[in-house]
Design brief:
222 residues, alpha+beta, Phosphatidylethanolamine-binding Protein, six-stranded mixed beta sheet, three-stranded antiparallel beta sheet, 11 strands
Length: 222
């Protein structure tokens, strides 16, 4: 199922752009926003770096991001988690803006606290996905940089890290956020901590986001 967010919602994300260069994404006021989004079924639309203005002064376009692995907002199968095979799900998108140079993808747990004071936990960050792409396959191969220029990190290495919420307590909300950019990101995937690399990628994205799509899921171990 496709997950579509309103233009007004995307526009509200612009409030975070001015601080991306000094702070990791999702650091400013995100907890309150997450509570509102949970009630609306829109968890995950914030702090990844959504922007107004894109690279040429226009508003960010809504991208229809979807996965065949689960219904948007539904339960993520164990296959895509740390309790299973831990392969990345297939993702596809439509309604992207024209002349996209690259895409970036952020996967994060909205209910876990990360390092450096951020109020989410990054599971996977991929950038420099070719602008001609309309999908990512299931089980993206490991490696910091692919032949097509795509780069990736996670807290434990250059590969996808699946959901891992414990059996105790409620299921966690996981957001898969895709950003269409009018530039490539000149940040290397090695040599810095994952938190610092994430901050550098989103600082480089500031002012270049032309579209965004989100798909969410729930997970807890059995």
């Amino acid at each position: 199922m496709k997950h579509t967010i309103s233009l007004a919602f995307v526009t509200s994300l612009a409030l975070a752009v001015g601080v991306l260069a000094q702070n990791p994404p999702a650091q400013q006021g995100q907890q309150q926003q997450q509570g509102q989004q949970a009630q609306q079924g829109q968890r995950g639309g914030g702090g990844g770096g959504g922007q107004r203005g894109g690279g040429r002064g226009g508003r960010a376009q809504v991208i229809a991001l979807s996965t065949t692995a689960w219904a948007d907002g539904g339960v993520i199968p164990a296959k895509f988690s740390q309790a299973g095979a831990e392969v990345s799900p297939a993702l596809s998108w439509t309604s992207a803006p024209e002349n996209v140079v690259s895409y970036a993808l952020l996967v994060r747990d909205l209910d876990a606290v990360g390092s450096n004071g951020v109020d989410d936990f990054m599971h996977w960050l991929v950038w420099n996905i070719p602008g001609t792409a309309t999908s990512l396959p299931e089980a993206v191969p490991h490696g910091p940089e692919h032949a097509d220029g795509m780069r990736q990190i996670s807290p434990s290495g250059p590969y996808y890290r699946g959901p891992a919420a414990p059996a105790t307590g409620p299921a966690h909300h996981y957001a898969f956020e895709l950003f269409a950019l009018d530039t490539r990101i000149d940040v290397v995937p090695v040599g810095a901590s994952p938190a610092d690399t994430r901050a550098a990628v989103f600082a480089a994205m500031a002012g270049h986001v032309r579209g965004k799509g989100v798909v969410t899921g729930l997970f807890k171990r059995n």
